[in-house]
Amino acid sequence: MKKIKIEIKKRITGKILFKYSCEENTTRKTLLQALRGGADLSGAYLRGADLSGANLSGAYLSGADLSGADLRGADFSGAYLRDANLRDANLSGANLRGADLRDADLRGANLSGADLRGANLRDANLSDADLRGADLSGAYLRGAYLCGADLRDADLRGADLSGADLRGADLRGADLRGANLSGADLSGANLRGANLRGANLRGANLSGADLSGAYLSGAYLSGAYLRGADLSGVKIKTATVFTGLYQYIVIPFIDEENKQWVKMGCYTRTIKEWDKDFWNNNSEFPNNGDLASKERELAYKTAKEWLKLNSKSVKKKA
After folding, report:
1. CA distance 63 to 84
2. Which residue did the predictor score with more confidence, 93 or 246?
3. Does 315 have pLDDT greater than 80?
4. pLDDT value at position 316?
5. Residues 148-153: contacts with CB within 8 Å, 24+ apart?
6. CA-CA distances (angstroms) from residue 25 to 6, 29, 111, 127, 172?
7. Do 234 and 227 meet the contact criterion of CB atoms below 8 Å apart?
8. What are the counts of helices (DSSP H) followed by strands (DSSP E) for the chain?
9. DSSP per-residue letters across 62-131
10. How buried is residue 32: exposed, middle or buried, by Cβ count under 10 Å (0-12/13-18/19+)?
């Protein structure tokens, strides 16, 4: 049988990086042979290649063109993919644990169910990427672009998303416990039912975000911009966040119809509703004069005072 020679070339210059001949040769065989020999495949042209299930652990593919490639279930753990073009690539179920993907182009890529634990995705472009159910726990996503990305049910525990662009991202049911979202742009994002316990949202832009049903216990929201955000089906006109007053965060806010609300823990109610039944959580905060109950009363009084002061300015602006 005749041997087939396949060359792997540099995507811009056309320079041959590696060549291999064998019977029934394929791009996969050639690439694996190159990796076995420790070849440097930075800038390699591998557009549309079928590398599904391939073991590419530790591969050096900086600046490589893997756009549209079939990389389902491939092992890229510890691989160097900085500046790589992975646009529209299928990486579903792939192992990218600890991979270096700084500045990589992952627009429209399918990363559903992928393992990205501890991966470095600083300044990577993941706009419109499919990250449903992906494990991004401990991943480094500072300054990453995630506009319109689908992150439903993704695991982002302890991930660094500071300064990330998450405009219009779908984060329904995502686990963001302990994640760093300081300065992130989450305007218009869907965070319905997301777990944000202990997350750092200092200075984050949450305008127009859907936070209904989100878990915010222990989250840091100082300086966060909440105008137009949706808390339990209520659109915010102006709001502030108090932490440290009692066990949970307190968010007094005025909605777009100038109605006054207070979110305390998992309860979001109007002032009238709170005044009518303040001691609604007898198991955790019984009306018995203990420290926890006194702190809850103080938190509510502080929220009401803020609303009293700000309702006047809101009416003037209207």
Report:
1. 4
2. 93
3. no
4. 55
5. none
6. 7, 6, 28, 35, 45
7. no
8. 3, 7
9. TT-B-TT-B-TT-B-TT-B-TT-B-TT-B-TT-B-TT-B-TT-B-TT-B-TT-B-TT-B-TT-B-TT-B-
10. middle
Closest to 151 (Cα-Cα) out of 206, 122, 111: 111
What is the mean predicted confidence (pLDDT) over 277-301?
A: 89
Provide mean pLDDT across the span 153-162. Answer: 98
The per-residue pLDDT for range 243-276, each reduced to its tens digit, is 888 888 899 999 888 999 999 888 899 999 999 9
User: By C-alpha distance, which of 139, 74, 163 is closest to 110?
Assistant: 74
> Residue 188 is encoded by which pair of tokens?
């218009």
Taking a C-beta distance cutoff of 8 angstroms, is the pair 209, 230 a contact? yes
In the block, which residue shows the tokens 């742009």? 185
Contact assessment for residue 255 and residue 236, using Cβ atoms and an 8 Å cutoff: yes
Q: Would residue 8 be called left, alpha or beta, if left means φ above 0 and alpha means ψ between -120 and 50 degrees?
A: beta
Which position has the token pair 């909605």?
255
